[in-house]
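Example record for the data management plan.
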Amino acid sequence: MIFVNFLIVAAASSAQAYNWDISQLQQCATTTVTVTNVNDSVLPLDLLLIPYGPSPLSGASKTIYEIPFNGSDPYKIDFQLKYPAGTQLVCLVNAMLLHYP
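Corresponding structural encoding:
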């Protein structure tokens, strides 16, 4: 089991509320995130995965992943969860790039 906290961040000067759903999180499984009720003006969206707390495995990676919603559907992404079982994560769906490509 992987533990997740959810946060939503908007790039606009006023906060916006989105609805989003994340499929069941399992080690090395394909995970899907779908965002609804989002204003098109905040596209593109990104998903930020940040591990925190003690690592379940000694020497396990605490890599932070930024995954863009850049497929054919700008409100849905599928990705492989690359953290070991027992990892605690903070997930952010944000409407701004955290770095310049």
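Summary line stored alongside the record: The domain at 3-94 is CATH 2.60.40 (Immunoglobulin-like).
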